[in-house]
Amino acid sequence: MWQLYPNILTSEVPLANRERLIKTLIDLIRIDSPTGEEDDIDREVSARLAALGFEIYHDSFKNIIAKLPGDGEPLLLSAHIDTVEPGRGIRPVLDGDVLRSDGTTILGGDCKAGLTIVLEALTSVIDAGASHRPIEVAFTRAEEGGLVGVHNLEFPQITAKTGVVFDGEGAVNRISVAAPSQNVVTANIRGIAAHSGVEPEKGLSAILIAAEILTQLPLGRIDAETTANVGRIDGGLKRNIIPEEAFMDGEIRSRDNTKLDHYSDEFRRIFKEAGIRHPDAQIDLDIRNTYQAYQVDASHPTVTMLGRALAQIGLEPSLEATGGGSDANVFFENGIVALPVGIGVRSFHTTNETAVISEIVQGAEMCEGVIRGV
């Protein structure tokens, strides 16, 4: 059972304002912010943070780093400001406790709900005049483009060693305590072009070579902590030309780096053997790491911090291992234990995306607790 510190004062109970939170969420959702076009949402959230007394800094990638003095150990609060497509001209529709789009776009709850949670929690604590920890906010760009923003974050500006990343699917009590490493796999295959009706025997199809390779790769759910996928294949010019070029784009993920290395070597072997079978083809394979795995147990101070804040609002933590990566992976690589939590949103990256208002309010209440250092 999670235990609260005995000296929490009545004036320090959660103060999240539901109506204000809903307005903030809808206002943010209505600002288009597809990856690479984050300037408008940047101006809005930066202005809100400045109004709360934060010192605002933009690094060379234009990530937002904001700081507010306080007492005790500094705390990092993070979310990303970009969204996926189709995410322009979003028309949010509130139906009782559920917010959704009109069905023609995403909602943008990923990650506008995360931004809203942080902004509402900060507003509640500061308006109440409550004591709080020193706060460092990192709102990153281009997370949806492959964690590009956080990879370019100026980490010397961050002093916190613990924090929360508001970017998880589902309820706020879902805490991702383990996540995988990812290797990105790309391959360019060059065959020989020829007219498919006149002299096909003179050609060498790059697409057929790619298909041959694809049937041999270990793909899908390999085991409980390892997956692999080829998500994109491009190639060819016209139906009557033996395709000279093909491109493959995939990934390998595992929470066990030994397995990641093993299956990366399997990919290399399969591509190499294809090159031996087709000496007239040129096959260029690139496998590179994009982020590293992390794992903490239930006794870690960041987990217990979140557990206390959740207990304050009557929730039990649900500790989960995920197959997805997030900015948290890169924070861990830089010595910051910042764990992702749910933000009350379902069906990320789809036109069926929904946000549950009551869960977002709980997220703000939980965030208030960690800000105050309960």
Largest sheet, described in full? 6 strands, mixed
CATH fold node name of the largest domain? Aminopeptidase
The DSSP helix count reads: 9
Care to count the β-strands? 18
The CATH architecture term of the largest domain is: 3-Layer(aba) Sandwich
Structure overview:
The structure is a single chain. By secondary structure, this protein is of the alpha+beta class. The protein has two domains: 10-179 and 293-372, Zn peptidases (Aminopeptidase), CATH 3.40.630.10; 181-291, Alpha-Beta Plaits (2-Layer Sandwich), CATH 3.30.70. 30% of the residues lie in helices and 27% in strands. The protein has nine helices and 18 strands. A six-stranded mixed sheet has the order 1-2-6-3-7-16, with helices on both faces. A five-stranded antiparallel sheet has the order 10-11-12-9-13. Strands 4-5-18-17 form a four-stranded antiparallel sheet. β1 and β2 form a beta hairpin. Mean pLDDT is 95; it is low at 1-11.
